[in-house]
Structures are given as C-alpha cells and as structure tokens.
Amino acid sequence: MARYEITGARPLSGEVTISGAKNAAVAILPAAILVRGKCRVENVPDISDVRILLNILQDIGAVVTREAPGTIVLDCTNITETCPNAELVRKMRASYYLMGALMGRFGKANVALPGGCNFASRPIDQHIKGFRLLGADVEETEDYVNLKTGTEGLRGNRISLDVVSVGATVNIIMAATLIPGQTVIENAAKEPHIVDLANFLNTMGANISGAGTDTVKIRGVESLQGGTYAIIPDQIEAGTYLAAVAATGGNVLVKNVIPKHMDCITSKLQEMGVNIINYDDSIRIRSQGRLSCCTVKTHPYPGFPTDMQAQICVCMALADGVSRLTENVYETRFFGYCTELQEMGAEIMINGKTAMVTGHEKLYGAEVSAHDLRAGAALIIAGLAAEGKTVVCNAHFVERGYENIVQKLKDLGAQIVRMED
Ligand code: EPU
C-alpha cells in the first residue's frame, strides 16, 4: 500500500496547473459509446478512475489511442458487448454510466453494481426510475442491473427527479440521446460537469438544451458522429489547492480554472480572510495570518460542494473561533476523516449532519489513513499545515482523482514524498 509522508508547516508558493475534471471525464468517456466514429478528447486527467474506465471500454471493444499527454482518441464504433467486465466495473463508482450509455446505444445493458468511495449509502433508484420512464425493463439483482428495451420500445419522456442527482441526470441524458422523442429532466443537477457532458454530446451531433439549469431537454437524434472536445478544468482539484494554500499560508497562482465554477468555494475562503484575485482562467490566492471561522452548508451546485467538505474542515480546524459545517448531500461523510483529523489535534464535534469545529493555532503530524478520495486530500492538506511529520496511508484513494499530486505540491515548495511498501 502506498502512503504520503509530509513534513508540514511550510507555506506554499508558485504556480499550479489544474487538470481536466474527473467527474466530467468519467461521464464523457462512457458517453463516447453513443458515438459512431472517433472522439478525440483533450484535457483528460491521468488518474486511476480514468485508467480503469478506459480498460473497461477497451475490454468491450472500444479502440483507445493515447495521442499525447491528456489527449485520448476513443473509437466505440465496433463495440458489441453490453455486459462489461464485472471485476473492473466494481473498481469505481462512475461505472454506472455504462448503464445509460450502453442502453442508449444498444437498447440493453447488463452492468454490475459499481464500487468506488463508500463514504455513504449511495442509492441509484433515480437512475432506475429514469430508465423505466424511457421504456426500459429493469431487473435488479444483488450484484447486477439488467436493462432491456420494454415491449413498447424506448421513447422520450418527462422525468422529474425526486432528489437532485448528478449521476441520474448524466445517465438519463445518455440513455435519451439516441431514442425517439423528447425527454425532459426536471429537478436536474446543474454541476459544471453536466454542462460539459451536454456540450460534448452536442459537439458530436446531439440535441440537448438547458444543461446547467434544473430543466434539461434532450431531443433524440438518429446518430452521433466523431469530433474533438476538451474537458473542463477540475473544480474540486482547484478548490483543494486553494484550501491547501488557505491552510498553510502562502501565495499561489492556480492556473487552468474557470473562476465562475469556483465562486461557491472562493467566496467562503474570502469570508475566512483569504485574498482571492480572479483572472480569465486562473486565480491568485494569498493567505497570511490566522483564518477566521465561518459557516458552511454543502448543497448541489451552485452551492458549496460536498466534495470540498473535508478540505474546508481542515481550514476550519485552524481558524480563529468556532465554525459550523453542515453536510446536506451525504450525511455520513464526516466519518471518513474527522477521527483522523482529531488524531492531529483538531477539535471537531459531530451532531447529526453538522460538525462544530473549534479552531486551534496548530495541527500536529500523525499517522492517519485516507478512507476515501476527498478525505485523503483533506488529510494531505492537514499534513502540509501541521507541525512535524504526517503519514497519510491509503494513497490509492487520492490517486483516483488527483493527477500528479505529489509533484504539483512539490512544485509549490511542499515537502511530500510517496512511499510504497
Ligand atoms: N441519490 C438518491 N438516489 C439516486 C441517486 C442519488 O437518493 O438514485 C442521493 C444520494 O444518496 C445523495 C444525493 O442524491 O444524497 C446526491 O447524489 P448524486 O447522485 O448527485 O451523487 P453521485 O452522482 O453518485 C457525484 C460525484 C460525487 C459527488 C456527488 C455530489 C461523480 C462520478 N461523482 O456522485 O463525487 O460527491 O455527485 O456532488 O460525478 C468525488 O468526486 O469525490 C465524488 C464522490
């Protein structure tokens, strides 16, 4: 098992370039199944979730060519297999997008239930509801979801989601792109990666409007053809580096970002006393002295993202005063990292979906374990800010979603090494 060893209490300075968005890439790469022709996808992050997904796609017959760092050409024209390898599928959460993509192209799919970060119960009832309303017969077993075209065929429909779900919105968009009629998703998720998926599919010939609002309309088209598309920068990776600078102090230019996507995060950091300057596609952050306490409530976009909950918690643990952190998307997410932060001297009291975080001037190095991707990122930030040496075990969780994190942090002056037993 790999781990990170960090010697902390050093400010960060310099420049860091943000990679393509993980949660956009893991939707756009399976969406290429819908396309007959070559999709040239740029700004693809080199992270383990993407590598697993590309293996799954290759295994079912896609031709994958790495043209340059970050550029992948995917040709799914000759795929015939609709039951992807279960062992690979179970290695990651977003493999559930194979359901919508395979059903959208072939009218059937048999996909193992996904694995991935298990920081909460993560039901897929809204995905299934969507597939059924589009005319699929869905059979769920303990391990698999088996989708077939129902007796009346697949057809566009009005689907109102009971909860705002990124995954269900993506899956329904993919399932509806090539079927006759119009599909309307109400109460859709509005995350930047939903817009990115719609832009990708529209570039290939789809007819999707309203992505980024809570009503997405998909008019089915007969076919999609190949093209070139560049994935947006990763909002959460950028937010993680911003939180790291806020916690350690320093002065960093975060490059390759869409500042608008960052507003929900930068506005909170500003409230905590950090200086932020937005440029066209970069953000400068300067953090000096003690942070101020604040109140954060996670919500679907454009609210403060649940995927930044753990990282902002580290900032709160170092801030002056008592901060209040409420989780509204995944209530059990605190348990992935709060005990570990407490080992490092953080004072956190959890009561239901709210954590009260009493800030202290310092955190102290300790041996801690990442239990999921964002928890791991938060523990790295804590290690960078803490006095002494921190060991963060379970590096593989972090590598699911952060490209080259060790080198990027080293370039900012951090003392961090990756060790393998
Ligand atoms: N939900 C349901 N039924 C469903 C689907 C979701 O009740 O059928 C509930 C969930 O339990 C949760 C809420 O709806 O309370 C939102 O879940 P959502 O479906 O939006 O989450 P997801 O699609 O499984 C994506 C990201 C997560 C991120 C969440 C929330 C991907 C691949 N994953 O998950 O990212 O936390 O949206 O923004 O896009 C991460 O990157 O670390 C990560 C976990």
Topology readout:
Elements (H helix, E strand, L loop, with lengths): L1 E6 L4 E6 L4 H10 L3 E8 L5 H12 L3 E6 L2 E5 L10 H4 L7 H10 L1 E5 L12 H9 L2 E5 L3 E6 L8 E3 L5 H11 L5 E5 L5 H12 L3 E3 L5 E5 L4 E7 L4 H14 L1 E6 L3 H13 L3 E4 L3 E6 L7 E3 L11 H10 L3 E5 L11 H6 L3 E5 L2 E5 L8 E3 L3 H13 L3 E5 L1 H5 L5 H7 L3 E6 L1
Parallel strand pairs: 2-14, 3-13, 9-10, 17-18, 21-22
Antiparallel strand pairs: 1-22, 1-23, 3-5, 4-5, 6-8, 7-8, 10-12, 11-12, 14-16, 15-16, 18-20, 19-20
Helix pairs in contact: 1-2, 1-4, 1-7, 4-6, 5-6, 8-9, 8-10, 8-12, 10-12
Bound molecules: uridine-diphosphate-2(N-acetylglucosaminyl) butyric acid.
**Arithmetic mean of pLDDT:** 96
Number of strands: 23
Number of domains: 2
- Nearest-angstrom radius of gyration? 21 Å
Spell out which ligands are present. Answer: uridine-diphosphate-2(N-acetylglucosaminyl) butyric acid
Query: How is the main sheet built?
Result: 4 strands, mixed
Low-pLDDT runs of 5+ residues are none
Task: Determine the CATH superfamily of the largest domain.
Answer: Enolpyruvate transferase domain
Helix/strand-derived category reads alpha+beta
Count every helix, treating DSSP H or I runs of 4 or more residues as helices.
Answer: 14
Strand order of the largest sheet: 21-22-1-23
CATH topology name of the largest domain = UDP-n-acetylglucosamine1-carboxyvinyl-transferase, Chain
Would you identify the CATH architecture of the largest domain?
Answer: Alpha-beta prism
Roughly what fraction of the amino acids lie in strands? 25-35%
